[in-house]
Amino acid sequence: MKFNLSDFIEKNNGAIKDIIVTNEKIIFENNEFLYINKCKLLFNKVTDGCLVKIDMKYTLEIICDRCLKELNSSYSSTFYASIIFTNIINKSEISNIDGDLVLKTNSNEVDLNEIIRQHELSSRPMKYICSNDCKGLCNLCGVNLNINICKCQKNLL
Ligand SMILES: [Zn+2]
Ligand SMILES: [Zn+2]
Questions:
Q1: What pTM did the predictor assign?
Q2: Which residues are within 5 Å of ligand 2 (an ion), measured at CB?
Q3: Which domain covers residue 43, as residue numbers?
Q4: CA 137 to ligand 2 centroid distance, Å
């Protein structure tokens, strides 16, 4: 999700801008993706930057920690981030200190994907499991034990 806020940067402090984004897919480096069903962005101008409130409903494709099955689950989340405008083109920088997200970026191309990813990572549970009684994969042959019984398991019995 990239926005050009170069007009907004000229506004007085306290100015507000809202943007609604629907149906947008964000692909992360590890090929997991987050599908934005709907995202409401509210930018609030402050000196040298703005605060943004991000209110999003999204679907995440993740992988079961035990059996590697792909799961889709829907979430909704509201969080805030600070954006500091710099004059450096094509370079943005994110810091995340205890969940306080700060993005330093040029106002022409404000890319919120990494902020969204950072927020999602910090709010995600340590482990995703497709079901509490997921049997996982056989650690010898790799068969999905929810679906099959492998020879290794038979031999152990
Ligand atoms: Zn599983
Ligand atoms: Zn096996």
A1: 0.78
A2: 138, 140-141, 143, 150, 152
A3: 2-156
A4: 8
